């Protein structure tokens, strides 16, 4: 792989401060986050075309997120060992080919398998993307703005997924949702090869921690499976309890293996920095609420108000339109004041937005939900770039890939948990389950705001770093 992706000439120095590295990285990242949500509106069409039921459709959504989250830590360590650019290019290639497999899938089983491979490509790309941005933009202010754009892309992709999915399904059919990734993936490959400088690789590190990776995968799979199956079987069913027992066993085994490993994929000393630990928890809580809402809102509009796929996508526009503004503002504020202020403010606004969905019911007019959607989208967009900056500034440079992987794994675990748990809560009664879900999401946002106020640096360049952080 290093030979395959070796550039014929080294990236020019000027490219390090140009926008092209940012464009290349963000294009790949946009595809990754888009594919978390873009299928939500397309699910009824997928089920009808491939003759699959609700269980199959659940795995179309969460199968991707499960592999994505489960392999992020492993792939972060891989990027530190082999170089972020090599791993990012490999992830782009895998993701693009898997997207073609999704688009051409003849059965639901093939589609789910292709989605699992997409998750592998996404896991390779995401931690490497942050490490590449850190190398391409070495100045703290420039890096904060780059992370702001990166966060904007995440918010836009997450919010645009249902909207774009509705438009594509209505105009071209559900397969076009996946065909869209092919030209974007090829463009990202070319731009990365030509313009993105590599981050330093530590090839002296010992081998990768495969037993711990297996334990982590078992733990996460048990958690997601238990939450999904509880909707149909009940929380006390032996299969559900067995899944949660597997989750606990996997977590315990993972921690024990990591403590004894000479080359852990999760360097536990990173968590000695309060900003790092708090940001990881905040990322999990943020995505649980936001992605859980993005999963439930289309169900609410389609099942309660009988919207079409296209109208459902358009109904979610208020949550999308403010994302660019919130993320850009977060990047500027973080560069000037540090990450605490945008995180606390964003989480408080987001909590208000989620709470506003308590108004949702069979007779609720659409305008009553516009302000809650705006607040949820803006609050999330204001928080995410600042939390990203907090994590990356708290970690030592040689562990930037692992740090990015921890943060993004926490976020994607939150996404998988939000879809699985919130989906289970609406299994029997959509409106009542929606109210309980947004209440849980709002409480998580408020808890994250408290963590931000107590643990995140309040001034730019505050020295809350993990041991070994170079100045």
Automatic annotation (TrEMBL):
One Gene Ontology term of the molecular function aspect: transmembrane transporter activity
Keywords from the UniProt entry: Antibiotic resistance, Cell membrane, Membrane, Transmembrane, Transmembrane helix, Transport
Segments traversing the membrane: 20-50, 56-75, 87-114, 120-137, 149-170, 176-193, 214-233, 239-257, 278-301, 307-329, 341-360, 366-392, 413-432, 438-456
Any single Gene Ontology cellular-component annotation: plasma membrane
Topological type in the membrane: Multi-pass membrane protein
Span of the signal peptide: none
Protein localization: Cell membrane
Pfam family, one: MFS_1
PROSITE patterns: MFS
GO BP annotations, alphabetical order: response to antibiotic
Residues of the Major facilitator superfamily (MFS) profile domain: 21-460
Membership in a protein family: Belongs to the major facilitator superfamily. EmrB family.
Protein name: MFS transporter
């Amino acid at each position: 792989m290093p030979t395959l992706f070796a550039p014929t000439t080294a990236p020019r120095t000027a490219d390090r401060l140009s926008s092209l590295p940012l464009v290349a990285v963000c294009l790949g990242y946009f595809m990754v986050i888009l594919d978390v949500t873009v299928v939500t509106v397309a699910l009824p069409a997928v089920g009808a075309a491939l003759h699959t039921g609700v269980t199959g459709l659940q795995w179309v959504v969460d199968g991707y997120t499960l592999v994505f989250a489960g392999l992020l830590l492993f792939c972060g360590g891989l990027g530190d060992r082999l170089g972020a650019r090599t791993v990012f290019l490999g992830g782009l290639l895998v993701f693009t080919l898997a997207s073609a497999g999704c688009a051409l899938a003849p059965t639901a089983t093939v589609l789910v398998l292709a989605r699992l491979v997409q998750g592998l490509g996404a896991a390779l790309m995401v931690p490497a993307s942050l490490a590449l941005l850190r190398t391409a933009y070495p100045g703290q202010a420039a890096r904060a703005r780059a992370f702001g754009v990166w966060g904007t892309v995440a918010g836009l992709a997450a919010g645009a997924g249902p909207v774009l999915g509705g438009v594509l399904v209505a105009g071209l059919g559900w397969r076009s949702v996946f065909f869209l990734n092919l030209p974007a993936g090829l463009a990202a490959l070319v731009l990365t090869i030509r313009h993105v400088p590599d981050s330093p690789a530590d090839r002296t590190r010992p081998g990768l921690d495969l037993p711990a990776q297996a334990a982590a995968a078992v733990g996460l799979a048990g958690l997601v499976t238990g939450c999904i199956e509880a909707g149909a079987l009940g929380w006390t069913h032996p299969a559900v309890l067995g899944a949660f027992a597997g989750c606990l066993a996997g977590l315990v085994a993972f921690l024990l293996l990591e403590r004894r490993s000479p080359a852990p994929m999760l360097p536990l000393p990173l968590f000695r920095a309060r900003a790092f630990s708090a940001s990881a928890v905040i990322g999990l809580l943020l995505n649980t609420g936001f992605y859980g809402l993005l999963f439930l809102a289309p169900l609410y509009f389609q099942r309660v108000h009988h919207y079409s796929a296209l109208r459902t996508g358009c109904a979610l526009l208020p949550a999308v339109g403010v994302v660019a503004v919130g993320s850009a503002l977060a990047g500027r504020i973080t560069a000037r004041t540090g990450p605490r202020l945008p995180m606390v403010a964003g989480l408080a606004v987001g909590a208000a937005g989620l709470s506003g969905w308590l108004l949702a019911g069979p007779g609720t007019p659409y305008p009553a939900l516009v302000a809650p959607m705006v607040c949820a989208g803006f609050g999330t967009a204001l928080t995410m770039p600042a939390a990203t900056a907090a994590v990356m500034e708290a970690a030592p440079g040689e562990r930037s890939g692992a740090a990015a992987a921890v943060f993004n794994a926490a976020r994607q675990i939150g996404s998988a948990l939000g879809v699985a748990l919130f989906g289970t809560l609406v299994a029997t009664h959509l409106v009542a389950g929606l109210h309980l879900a947004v209440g849980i999401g709002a409480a998580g946002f408020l808890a994250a705001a408290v963590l931000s106020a107590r643990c995140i640096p309040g001034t730019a360049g505050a020295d809350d770093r993990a041991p070994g952080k170079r100045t």
